[in-house]
């Protein structure tokens, strides 16, 4: 049996009314612009499923396999975990139509939008197009069309598309995947170390003009709301820090990088999303990056409808 993720250390405390009522453990790695580790906590060499943080590299793999999109906004959507707002759904449907496809071709599971208002507007009826990975799946379908591959089983691990995407992820991470699983959307997901994930994002952010990785990074930077949603983590951070490219993943994963500065990868062991922000902001500060996003740095706890506490980084 290969190396396993051994778990993290206390990274965030939860303070309410001056009393520490809980905390979150996890791991984090910070790399400088040359790829050298400058700070870390927890296990940064054991494998974790990077979940949707792998999407930018998957988008690069799709471009390598022949995907061509005239609008960079569509490329941002292919790398997205969108919240199902109207502008997300309209663009996914348009993307499918551009390839002569309908929503019936999607193999991600039916779901409700992540955005609360969109969820209410949906009438409570799950649809495949609402699923947060439908942009990625649309890109996969169009890639198969461009490459002349079958579309019916595009999400299966033995499909040539998935093999190309996995090769791209491993190349950018600089390591072989420790395991392959099934992501929430039904497509394959690879297990990488946090060091490998940070390495992949450093290479993504450092892409030279004209490269495929630069086109993906620039699309994400230009359209951060398409990558996530209005006022969501990825959008907030990319709007706040010039040049930064980032992508969250389920189960407490988040990775980011700034060209010429370095990269960060985080795993919160219990999967809590709210604990990622304080550590991300702290990690960026360690790279000398001024990231001022109070809602991420110290998320507020409410009591009786008013602020009574916050999450604080321990690292």
Keywords:
single chain, 22% strand, 315 residues, Asparaginase, 3-stranded antiparallel beta sheet
Description:
- By secondary structure, this protein is of the alpha+beta class.
- The chain has one domain: Beta-lactamase.
- Helices cover 36% and strands 22% of the residues.
- It has twelve helices and eleven strands.
- The strands form two sheets. Strands 1, 2, 3, 7, 8, 9, 10 and 11 form an eight-stranded antiparallel β-sheet that branches. A three-stranded antiparallel β-sheet has the order 4-6-5.
- A hairpin with a 2-residue loop joins strand 10 and strand 11.
- Helix 6 packs across helix 7.
- It is globular.
- The model has no long low-confidence stretch (mean pLDDT 97).
Strand content: 15-25%
CATH topology tier name = Beta-lactamase
Total of DSSP H or I helical runs spanning 4+ residues: 12
Average pLDDT over all residues:
97
Task: Give me the CATH architecture, please.
Answer: 3-Layer(aba) Sandwich
* Spatial shape: globular
- The CATH class designation is Alpha Beta
The structural domain count equals: 1
Helix content: 25-40%
Instruction: Provide the succession of SSEs.
Output: EEEEHHHHHHEEHHHHEEEHHEE
Number of strands: 11
Low-confidence stretches: none
Structural class: alpha+beta
Radius of gyration, whole Å: 19 Å
The biggest beta sheet reads: 8 strands, antiparallel
The span between the termini is 31 Å
InterPro entries: Asparaginase_II
Pfam families: Asparaginase_II (PF06089)
Organism: Catellatospora chokoriensis
Protein name: Asparaginase
């Amino acid at each position: 049996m290969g190396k396993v993720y051994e778990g993290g250390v206390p990274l965030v405390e939860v303070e309410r009314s001056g009393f520490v009522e809980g905390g979150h453990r996890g791991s984090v790695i910070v790399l400088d612009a040359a790829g050298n580790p400058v700070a870390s906590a927890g296990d940064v060499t054991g494998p974790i499923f990077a979940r949707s943080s792998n999407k930018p590299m998957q988008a690069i793999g799709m471009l390598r396999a022949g995907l061509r999109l005239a609008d960079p906004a569509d490329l941002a959507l292919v790398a997205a975990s969108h919240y199902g707002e109207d502008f997300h759904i309209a663009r996914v449907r348009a993307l499918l139509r551009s390839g002569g496809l309908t929503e019936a071709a999607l193999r991600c599971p039916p779901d409700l939008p992540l955005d609360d208002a969109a969820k209410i507007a949906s009438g409570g009826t799950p649809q495949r197009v609402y699923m947060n990975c439908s942009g990625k799946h649309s890109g996969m379908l169009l890639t198969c069309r461009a490459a002349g591959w079958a579309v019916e089983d595009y999400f299966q691990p033995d499909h040539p598309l998935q093999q190309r995407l996995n090769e791209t992820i491993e190349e950018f991470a600089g390591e072989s995947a420790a395991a392959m699983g099934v992501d929430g959307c039904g497509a394959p997901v690879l297990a990488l170390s946090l060091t490998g994930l940070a390495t992949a994002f450093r290479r993504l952010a450092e892409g030279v003009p004209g490269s495929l990785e630069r086109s993906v990074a620039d699309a994400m930077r230009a359209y951060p709301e398409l990558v996530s949603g209005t006022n969501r983590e990825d959008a907030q951070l990319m709007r706040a820090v010039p040049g930064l490219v980032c992508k969250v993943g389920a189960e407490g994963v988040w990775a980011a990088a700034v060209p010429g500065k370095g990269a960060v990868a985080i795993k919160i062991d219990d999967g809590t999303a709210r604990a990622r922000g304080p550590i991300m902001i702290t990690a960026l500060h360690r790279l000398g990056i001024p990231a001022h996003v109070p809602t991420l740095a110290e998320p507020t706890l409410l009591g009786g409808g008013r602020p009574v506490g916050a999450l604080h980084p321990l690292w």
